[in-house]
Every structure is written in C-alpha cells, then in structure tokens.
Design brief:
This protein is α/β, with parallel strands linked by helices and 404 residues long. The chain is built from 13 helices and 16 strands. The protein starts with 7 loop residues before the first strand and ends with a strand. The structure holds 1,4-dihydronicotinamide adenine dinucleotide. 1,4-dihydronicotinamide adenine dinucleotide (NAI) binds next to α5 and α7.
C-alpha cells in the first residue's frame, strides 16, 4: 500500500518545465530528464519513482510494465498513447493520462492561415520571390470573405475552426457522423457529398479509423468544386495522395495544404518524400498542426493536473485505459482507492471487511470496465488503515492505497 507524500515523479523527453513546476507546487518530488531513456536505462531509473511522465518516443512495453507494477500512474505528455501498452497497464491498475485537446486551437489557427495562403497562392509567391521571381498578378487570387468553408469532422478542432472562420466572413458548412450542435451560423449538412460539392475550401478533421481510411479519394475529389482547395491536418490515411496529385495536375483542385501523410519520417533526421512535392499551390508542412509553444505548455499543465488529481484525490477523469471517476474532494476522512479484478463477489468481500471492522462508510464510488473495477471509499480516519490493509490482501485486489 502506498501512502503519500512524497510521491516521486520522473519526467523524461524534455517535457515542458511547467509540468515540473505544477507537480512540485503540489508537493511531489520531480526529476526532469531531457532525453528519452531506452528500455534498460528506464528500467534502472524507474524503480525509485512512483509516477512516470513520457512523450511519444519512450515505449512502455508489457515487459517494462510487468517489472514496474509498483507505478501509480503514467502521464503521456502528448496526444497519442500508442507508445504505452494500455491493456497491460490497465490489468496492473495503472491509469494512463494524456492531453488530447491541448493543441486544438493551434491546429485551427494553422488551418485559418492556410485558407488565406491558398487563396492568395502565398506559398508559390513566397518561394518565387526568394528565387528572384517577381510575379505581381491578381489572377486566381481571391479574398476569403463570403467563400464557403466545408468542415468534415465537427469535433474539437472542426468546431473551433468554424468559429474562427466565421470571424473572417467565411460561410461554414459541415458534416459529422454524429449529430453536432452547429456553432454560430454554421450549417450541418446531411451528407459528406453536400459539403464536398458546395465548399470552396474543404478541411478534414476526422480521427483515424477504419471508416476514415481513404475517405477522400478520386470520387470525392471529383465532387469538389472546380478551383476549390483541400486542407488535411487530421491524419495521413484519410486522403488518397495519388488521387489528389491527379486532380491537382488536371487543375480540378486549385491547391492543397497537407500537414499529415500516409508515411511520415520517424524523426527530423529522416528525409521526407511525397508525390506532392514541387506541385504548384501546394503547401506541405511536417505534421506541425499542433506543434506550438502554447500547446506544449497546455499539455504540461493538463497532464500534471490529471496526475496530481489522481495521486491526491483518486480522480481518473480523462484516463485512457481506466474506468473514469470524477471524485469530490474528501475532507475529514481517509480515502481508500482499490483496483481489483472485475469478477463477481469482490465488492461483497470488500463490504464484509468494512462491516467486520465496524467502519462507517462516508462515501463510496465504483466504476468498472471489462477487466478491472475501481472502487473508492471514504472512511472515518480511525478505521481506514486497518480496512485498507485487509482489502489489499484480497486475492483479487490489484492495487490498494490510501490518500490522506
Ligand atoms: P475529435 O474527436 O474532437 O473530433 C473528430 C470528429 O470527427 C468527431 O466529431 C467525430 O464524430 C467526427 N467523425 C468521426 N468519423 C467521421 C466520419 N467518418 N465522417 C465525418 N465525421 C467523422 O478530434 P479532434 O481533436 O478534433 O481531432 C481531429 C483530428 O485532428 C484527429 O485525426 C487528430 O488526430 C488530428 N490532429 C492533428 C494534429 C496535427 O498536428 N496535425 C494535432 C491534433 C489533432
């Protein structure tokens, strides 16, 4: 059973300093490393820490997690969580927290800049001027005011973009598979085809799923208005690049801004190659939609708060692999947190322990998923330690601790 403080937290991969500051201000002991340790180094390091904070380069495998089942929680200070074996960490009772929406605004702002840049052929004018070309011409350059932006995927980014675009005088239409409240004057369309055929700019903001794979191919690009533009800052698998190249060559599409690709270099040292390179009025960016100082800062704050709330209060809101429980602050009592196998009878065993000890339950919360149950119980201080020790000994208990 683990009591706190001081909980020791290891942050690697140069996570934004603000995370360290936030966690230290909560009384935790934080070590921040600038590199991504390989598995053997991390195994040596992690023994003395109860919480790990990583970004996308550090892999936490089943092997690593088995050796480190003492961990209380893991923070992925980024959007993705593929680098962690989420199933294993769930089975071991280790919640994983990330920051999925900290860079929403950054992506929406990039897209706004691209809408104007495509409309004014800024990419080509800029590279031409750098090479000594002077192409002063209004042909094909247009204001964006009054044009129609079609958003496919009206989630966090799509809806944020919708608000920003209207402030520039764009008319916004959108399509989403889920019924969404249109913000401002935006109009929901019943089909993706409606959006493709009416929009001057089509911007994609869907997740990577089996349904969105190759979602924009030859048929969809043909449906787009002649001289319209395609923007993709969602995921590289959503657009069939060869089809886009063909439509650009035919001049059916007047330009594109692409931030994500089916194949992306694994690091800044690798060379980037795409059939879109060298095409006119095509803006290519290296998956930087969400890469801003502000987003990094926000990620640092968001994940640090999630970790701190879990350690101090037991709340698992936002954990990607764990039953979510948003808990009230506990005052004047002790809180027992117990992760157990989700099998019939465990709660009965726990409640037997409570009644055998004559303990008074002041609050009890339970959330489950297919394999684990997460039970939180507020008890009078006098009985809490005794009860928690007995709960911890249950065969089907995975992790038990008391927060003060
Ligand atoms: P979100 O989950 O808030 O919104 C996605 C929306 O797409 C949801 O409303 C969903 O109902 C809708 N959707 C799902 N399948 C659909 C389909 N087949 N057709 C139409 N709509 C569909 O996600 P969020 O945060 O807005 O992110 C959107 C995309 O942006 C994701 O792919 C994410 O990975 C990507 N992204 C890219 C970044 C970059 O650096 N370029 C940074 C951050 C996110």
């Amino acid at each position: 059973m683990t009591n706190h403080p001081p909980v020791k937290i290891l942050l690697v991969e140069a996570i934004h300093e603000v995370a360290k500051e936030k966690l230290e201000s909560e009384g935790f002991q934080v070590t921040l490393l600038s590199h991504s340790p390989d598995e053997s180094e991390l195994i040596k390091l992690s023994k003395e820490f109860q919480v790990l904070g990583i970004r996308s380069k550090t892999n936490l495998t089943e092997y690593f997690l088995k050796l480190n089942n003492h961990l209380l929680a893991i923070g992925t200070f980024c959007i993705g969580t593929n680098q962690v074996d989420l199933e294993k960490s769930n089975h071991l009772g280790i919640p994983v927290f990330n920051a999925p929406y900290s860079n929403t605004r950054s992506v929406a702002e990039l897209v706004i800049s691209e809408i104007i840049a495509l409309s004014r052929q800024l990419g080509d004018r800029n590279s031409g001027a750098h090479k000594g070309e002077w192409i002063k011409s209004a042909v094909g350059s247009r204001e964006v005011r009054g044009k129609t932006l079609g958003i496919i995927g009206y989630g966090h980014i799509g809806s944020q973009l919708s608000v920003l675009a209207e402030s520039l005088g764009l008319r916004v239409i959108f399509f989403d598979v889920v019924k969404k409240l249109p913000l401002g004057n935006a109009i929901a369309m019943s089909t993706i085809e409606d959006v493709l055929s009416q929009a001057d700019f089509v911007s994609l903001h869907v997740p990577e799923t089996a349904q969105t794979k190759d979602m924009i191919g030859e048929r969809e690009l043909t449906l787009m208005k002649p001289s319209s533009y395609l923007i993709n800052a969602s995921r590289g698998t959503v657009v069939v690049i060869d089809a886009l190249v063909a439509k650009l060559k035919e001049k059916h599409i007047a330009g594109a801004a692409i931030d994500v690709f089916p194949l992306e270099p694994a690091s800044n040292k690798e060379k980037f190659q795409s059939p879109l390179q060298g095409m006119s009025n095509v803006i290519l960016t290296p998956h930087i939609g969400g890469s801003t100082e502000e987003a990094q800062y926000n990620i640092g704050v968001e994940v640090a708060i999630s970790l701190s709330q879990y350690i101090k209060n037991g709340s698992t809101t936002g954990a990607v692999n764990f039953p979510n429980v948003d808990l009230p602050v506990h005052k004047g009592c002790r809180r027992i947190l117990n992760v157990h196998k989700n099998e019939p009878g465990v709660l009965g065993e726990i409640n037997n322990i409570v009644s055998k000890n004559g303990a008074n339950i002041l609050g009890q919360y339970l959330a489950t998923d297919a394999s684990i149950g997460y039970m939180v119980m507020d008890l009078e201080k006098a009985e809490a330690t005794r009860v928690a020790t007995e709960i911890e000994k249950l065969n089907r208990s995975i992790k038990t601790r008391i927060v003060i």
